[in-house]
Each structure stands twice: as C-alpha cells, then as structure tokens.
Amino acid sequence: MYEAERSRLVKGLRSQGYVTDERVLEAMGRVPRHEFLPPELKGQAYVDSPLPIGMGQTISAPHMVGIMLEALELRPGHRVLEIGAGSGYHAALMGELVRPGGKVYTVERLESLGSAAKEVMERLGYDDVVEVMIADGSIGLPEHAPYDRITVAAAAPSVPTPLEEQLADGGRMLVPVGGQGYQDLMLVTRNGDRLERTGLGGVVFVPLIGQHGYQD
Ligand code: SAH
Description:
Layout: H1 3-15, H2 22-30, E1 51-54, E2 57-59, H3 62-72, E3 79-83, H4 89-98, E4 103-108, H5 111-124, E5 130-134, E6 147-152, H6 161-165, E7 167-179, E8 182-191, E9 194-203
Parallel strand pairs: 3-4, 3-6, 4-5, 6-7
Antiparallel strand pairs: 1-2, 7-8, 8-9
C-alpha cells in the first residue's frame, strides 16, 4: 500500500536536495512509514511533516530523518545505538542500511511506545537486525558498547558523557543539543582519544528525559 505516495516523497527529498545518498533514498523507498503511525494518521504518512505518535511524542519529518541518515554514513556491519526509538521508523531505516552483518540497538524510555515499536519490527521482519529495549538511554547501553554510530532522537542539555564514552574509534554520533524548543544538531566524531564536535544546524526535538538529560 501507499507505494506511489512513498516514491513521490522520496523523489521530492532528492529533487529538493535534502538527501543525495542513493542508499539512504533507496532505504526510504523501502520502509513503509505508514506502518509506524497510529491508524488515523496513516493517510498522512508520505507528507514531509512530523506527526504525533502518542504520549506527547513525535516521529520526525522525513527530510529530517533523511538528513540524519546521510550524516551518519551508515554501512553494512555497523553496530548502532539509537536513543529514543519512538515509533521505530528511524531504527528500521538504519536496520536496512547496516544489513548484512550490522545491528541496531534502540532504547525507549516509554514502555507503551517501546512495545509497539518491538511489535512492528517483528511484523515487518526487522527483528533480526533491530533490537528494541525499554530503559533510560541517556546513560547509553554499556552492555553492547562500543558503537560505530550513535543517534539521539531527543534534545539533550549537553552531549551525554556516557554516549561519548561508548562511541567506537572512528565513530560518529548525532545529538541535538540545546534548550527545550530549539537545538543545534551536533555531530561528534571520535579519532582515538580525540572527540571533535561540529554543529550541523538548528533543529527542534522533544526533550531527552533521564539521568543525563532533562529531569521529568
Ligand atoms: N526516532 C523516533 C522518534 C523519536 S521521538 C521515530 O522514528 O519515531 C523521541 C523519543 O525519545 C520519544 O519516544 C521519547 O519517549 C524518547 N526518549 C526521551 N528521553 C529518553 C531517554 N532518556 N531514553 C530513551 N528514550 C527517550
């Protein structure tokens, strides 16, 4: 279902210059975004807009997802950590990009969203490559560290130290940093003991709530 709408959206992301990486565009052409939305919003799945997914949380607009996927430079075999599984859409796309041989661990603090994301992974056949866990991801996920890529889907007051520690040598991390309402999307890269931070531009994400985020 929705194949024509999905391919129109992907064409738009390419022609508007948001995404140039063909692997990212292909993955976005394959993953059915409507399957990650509440029933009443499925009809809007292929409009380039953020949408509510319940519990006051949102699924990012497709162009933002595409920009983040491109900046992450995901390759087959990568071990990836995502903080803020939400609907699971971004995690499924990353699953496509790290196959074969890779693994995506995605952490969600809200039980109801996490279990829905887990279910959709099983239904769509991503459960071999994507593992959904319920926990405070602001402390990272030490048991599977280090990660080649880390992506944070919620706004942090500063780059959470545990996440920097869990980033592999040569690794890349994306994290929105700033106040609640407007943040800078930071790219953190690790070269041995050296961490480098680059701001990629202004973004708006829901708050990261937890030990190394904002308080509840
Ligand atoms: N990537 C998601 C969008 C997530 S919205 C998607 O594709 O749908 C951000 C999510 O981060 C919300 O679901 C929120 O509950 C979650 N979140 C906020 N703080 C968190 C924390 N400390 N650990 C894990 N998840 C967190």
